[in-house]
Sequence to fold (165 residues):
Amino acid sequence: MLEWNNLGASKLGGDFMDTGWKEFEVAVADFLKAADPNNNVNHNVYLPDKHTKKRRQRDVFLETNLCGFLPIKVLISCKKYKRKLNQQDIDAFYGELISSGAHKGVIYSYSGFNKNAVEKCKVLEISCCKLYHYQPADLPEVLLFDYYCCVPKGMISLLGPIDKR
Fold:
């Protein structure tokens, strides 16, 4: 069971909870590390933006090998808002996902997702997950991949003469 401290309401107003957000990101990163020790999970990492080439902060970036040999990059965004995420939040994350160079995207939300956000995530193949205080965390139900191209190679060796009888 994961837990974090300093859960509080925003002093600034608006949707963002200004306390506990860092602990929330760390809890998500720690959960993903524990899920598979072979995952390379980086919290609060700065990576170049695919479009501008400038360094950009990412909440959590996961690199792993699917089936032990296909490299996969997953961008994980952690949202600790007082409200459920909406369709506009998903649009913003989708732009971040495209510019990150990651193959897949996952959003962890403290307050959940509204119906339109969930529908948008399904269409964009983004996984919606929740991580609550003192409750089990969600894992993405599925990560869909458009395609992976593999080129089969083979070798045939003759170990002796062919019997032509």
The helical segments are 21-35, 87-100, 115-124. The chain is about 25% helix and 25% strand.
